[in-house]
Design brief:
The structure is a single chain. The N and C termini lie far apart (180 Å). Helix content is 31%, strand content 25%. It has 388 residues and is of the alpha+beta class. The chain folds into two domains: 57-178 and 202-234, no CATH class; 240-370, Beta Barrel (L,D-transpeptidase catalytic domain-like). It is built from seven helices and 24 strands. A hairpin with a 2-residue loop joins strand 1 (65-67) and strand 2 (70-71). The strands form eight sheets. The chain has an eight-stranded mixed β-sheet with strand order 15-14-13-24-17-20-21-23, with helices on one face.
């Protein structure tokens, strides 16, 4: 290849240009590398700084976090617990009025064992940044940028205070039902009628549930109600009762509180007693056998036993009661004694009338004897205003 003189002169210059360009390129690369290194160093320093900044504040809650409306942003656990506890205390000190009828009980949730789970709420508030990157947490803290999160505060009821309150209310409002009955006055001179009344009791389970629901929802009032207790015995179910009035020598058959039959009777003569009281019928007999109850006294001249039938002192029917002295309501062979004070304590009736009464009164029913023989009465006397 032939090279001209001019070409030979330009060749060194071209080679020199290439070397210059190479040196410049190398210089640019060095500068760029230095810049990149500086940027990386700056970014690393910034990241390290952000990490150190975040680590220094890792025990504090991110800004803009609230627990039931209480701002706990930037607080440590102890600070947040104190702030939330103060707010919870207001809730736990609110009055709760429990009412039933005209009675009221005023308590607080705290008194009923209500407690706030402050530890769990603060733990949740502290952990809200766990899903964020370190730089995100740093950015929120550094710029005080709120995360906008509200943590709920859970409440629980512990202990048996609710049950204790229900027990107290239950005792206060309980009213026992009253069964209907026919009895005797304290002086034994008259019959006492007791009418059936309903009772009332608290449904303890429903009451406890209502109070607990009020605690859970924050209501300030609870109104409870009672459940009716029906009496076991009413006037309609009372059944029949015999009432013997010694001062009248009358026997009254009651159905409930209503007289359905009236009979004349003979009761004890002076020296003997037809005992007042409420007695129970334990047996009934047709054509009863008479056993002499006083072989050594007034019955000394009579047989020890007289079988049922004509001539039997108890007539055709006998109703046995548990009054002292072997007292019976029975018929008689002496119709003229009816209406008089003539017996040894038993209650005599005409045979025809004891036969009428006999199927109308069951074993287990009561015979109530009231009133007293007049002090002036003698053997065979009749009561004042007697209609025999």
């Amino acid at each position: 290849m032939n090279v001209s003189a001019s070409d030979r002169r330009s060749l060194p210059l071209m080679q020199k240009g290439r070397h210059v360009r190479k040196r410049r390129l190398k210089g640019a690369i060095v500068v760029i590398a230095a810049i990149v290194a500086a940027l990386l160093l700056a970014l690393g320093g910034a990241a390290y700084g952000a990490y150190r900044y975040e680590q220094a504040r890792a025990d504090r809650i991110l800004p803009g976090v609230t627990v039931v409306g209480v701002d706990v942003g930037g607080m440590t656990r102890p600070e947040a617990e104190r702030a939330v506890k103060a707010a919870a205390a207001k809730t736990l000190r609110r009055q709760l009025t429990v009412s039933i009828g005209e009675s009221h009980w005023i308590v607080t949730p705290a008194q009923l064992g209500r407690r706030a789970d402050i530890d769990a709420a603060v733990t949740q508030a502290l952990s809200l940044g766990a899903s964020m990157g370190t730089f995100d947490r740093f950015w929120h803290r550094f710029r005080d940028q709120p995360v906008g999160a509200d943590v709920e505060l859970a409440y629980v009821t512990k202990g048996d205070a609710v049950t204790g309150l229900v027990d107290k209310i239950s005792q206060r409002v309980y009213t026992a039902p009253q069964d209907a009955s026919v009895g005797i006055t304290d002086d034994a001179n008259d019959v006492r009628f007791v009418y059936a009344t309903q009772g009332a009791k608290l449904d303890r389970g429903a009451a406890a549930a209502s109070i607990q629901a009020a605690l859970d929802t924050g209501r300030a009032t609870v109104r409870l109600s009672t459940r009716v207790i029906h009496p076991e015995v009413t006037a309609d179910s009372l059944g029949r009762t015999i009432v013997v009035r010694v001062d009248q020598n009358k026997l009254y058959l009651y159905d409930g509180f209503d007289v359905i039959e009236t009979f004349s009777v003979a009761t004890a003569k002076p020296g003997y007693t037809t005992p007042t009281g409420v007695w129970n019928i334990y047996d009934k007999r047709e054509n009863p056998t008479w056993y002499n109850p006083a072989l050594d006294d007034w019955g000394a001249g009579l047989p020890a036993v007289i079988p049922g039938g004509p001539g039997n002192p108890m007539g055709t029917r006998a109703i046995y009661i548990d009054a002292p002295g072997l007292i019976r309501v029975h018929g008689t062979t002496d119709d003229s004694s009816i209406g008089r004070y003539a017996s040894h304590g038993c209650i005599r009736m005409h045979n025809s009338e004891i036969e009428q009464l006999y199927p109308m009164i069951p074993v287990g029913a009561h015979v109530i004897v009231v009133g007293h023989r007049p002090v002036s009465a003698a053997y065979w006397s009749t009561p004042p205003a007697s209609d025999i």
